[in-house]
């Protein structure tokens, strides 16, 4: 397969770069359904209060009704202001809840992204050729089909619902106004619930499609991944992180060897060297671990937890730290000093047993 074909999943860096450009995964249908559901819930909660407020407003209108010449300007202004307040009081909670639902649904998908990159002017947006390409792109075709499908589903649900209750409408003429309005509101709510349920299914399908399409768009070729890796290798911050990880891994491996030591020689706080001497396999004492300051204290702690002997010898600890490397035997000039420590530990063990 050619390296130019985009067959590989996007790397974390690629995803960060796309996010900086404002190119993130987003399903507008999911946002719309969230707004629809919250709006319906808010409408159900506020309908009793809305009916109460609107009834009071209509009663005021009827009370103030009369011949035009009998109406004062102040009374008309008062009525107008009261009507505006009533409408605002009824509509404001619904609008606020819908706006909040839209913002939350968007931010949950984009992970609180606020980017001005998409607002910058670009020639490709006014280029006729690019416009034609977008018009006949896969995304445009899918969006057109989705829009058509929504309209067809909406018409079908309305037709099916009304066909089931059309015989009831003539009978409403023989009911009182309150019962008739309550029945119509109940019908409207049932129809809205069916439409909302259908749109939830469509939104779920759109959510997964948009996710698949986004992942397809940001795929990378093998060559792009190689180039990105080369660029990252040259980044001082990346180099620093790699070295830090290497040090941490090396230190972790070193600490795992400390329990296998025969003795840890230390000065009080600054240096610690873990030595192993097995006469049947070592020609000389071997350095398993060494460290300074915090690492030295860590070596001592691990040794004590593993019940490895810890001996305080300031000059020997300094000499071992300065002249040895991990995995190497100690230099001949330190044989006698280390031998004295090992003999001391051997005699101490003999007395304890």
Uncertain stretches: none
CA-atom Rg in angstroms: 39 Å
| Percentage of β-strand residues | 5-15%
Q: Order of strands in the sheet with the most strands?
A: 5-4-3-6
How many beta-strand elements? 6
Distance between the termini: 70 Å
Question: How does the major sheet shape up?
Answer: 4 strands, mixed
Indicate how many domains the architecture comprises.
Answer: 2
Helix content: 55-70%
N-to-C order of helices and strands: EHHHHHHEHHEEEHEHH
Would you tell me the structural class of the helices and strands?
alpha+beta
- Global outline: elongated
Mean pLDDT: 81
Structure annotation, total helices: 11
Overview of this structure, please?
This protein has two domains: 8-15 and 24-112 and 153-228, no CATH class; 254-352, name from scop (3-Layer(aba) Sandwich), CATH 3.40.1690. It is elongated and about 115 Å long. The relative contact order is 0.09. Helix 2 packs antiparallel against helix 6 (177-217) and helix 5 packs antiparallel against helix 6 (177-217). Helix content is 67%, strand content 7%. The strands form two sheets. A four-stranded mixed sheet has the order 5-4-3-6, with helices on both faces. The chain has a two-stranded antiparallel sheet with strand order 1-2. The protein is built from eleven helices and six strands. It starts with 5 loop residues before the first strand and ends with a helix. The protein is α+β, with helices and mostly antiparallel strands.
């Amino acid at each position: 397969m050619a390296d130019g074909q985009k067959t590989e999943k996007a790397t974390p860096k690629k995803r960060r770069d796309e996010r900086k450009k404002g190119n993130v995964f987003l399903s507008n249908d999911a946002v719309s359904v969230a707004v629809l559901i919250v709006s319906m819930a808010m409408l159900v909660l506020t309908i009793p209060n809305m009916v109460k407020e609107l009834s009071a407003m209509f009663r005021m209108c009827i009370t103030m009704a009369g011949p035009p010449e009998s109406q004062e300007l102040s009374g008309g202004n008062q009525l107008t202001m009261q009507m505006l307040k009533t409408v605002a009081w009824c509509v404001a909670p619904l609008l606020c809840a819908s706006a909040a639902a839209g913002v939350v649904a968007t931010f949950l998908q984009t992970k609180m992204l606020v980017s001005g990159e998409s607002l910058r002017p670009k020639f490709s947006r006014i280029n006729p050729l690019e416009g034609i390409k977008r018009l006949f792109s896969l995304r445009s075709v899918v969006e057109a089909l989705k829009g058509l499908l929504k309209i067809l589903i909406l018409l079908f649900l309305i037709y099916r619902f009304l066909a089931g209750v059309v015989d009831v409408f003539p009978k409403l003429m023989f009911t009182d106004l309150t019962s008739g309005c309550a029945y119509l509101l109940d019908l409207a709510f049932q129809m809205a619930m069916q439409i909302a349920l259908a749109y939830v299914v469509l939104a779920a399908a759109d959510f997964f499609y948009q996710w698949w399409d986004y992942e397809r768009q940001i795929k990378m070729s093998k060559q792009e991944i190689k180039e990105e890796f080369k660029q990252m290798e040259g980044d001082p911050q990346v180099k620093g992180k790699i070295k830090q990880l290497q040090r941490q891994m090396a230190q972790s491996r070193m600490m795992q060897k400390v329990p296998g030591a025969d003795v840890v020689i230390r000065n009080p706080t600054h240096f610690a060297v873990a030595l192993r001497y097995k006469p049947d396999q070592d020609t000389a004492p071997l350095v398993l671990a060494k460290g300074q300051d915090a690492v030295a204290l860590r070596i001592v702690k691990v040794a004590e937890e593993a019940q490895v002997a810890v001996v305080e010898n300031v000059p020997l600890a300094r000499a071992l730290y300065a002249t040895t490397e991990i995995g190497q035997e100690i230099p001949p000039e330190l044989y006698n000093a280390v031998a004295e420590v090992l003999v001391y530990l051997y005699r101490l063990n003999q007395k304890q047993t």
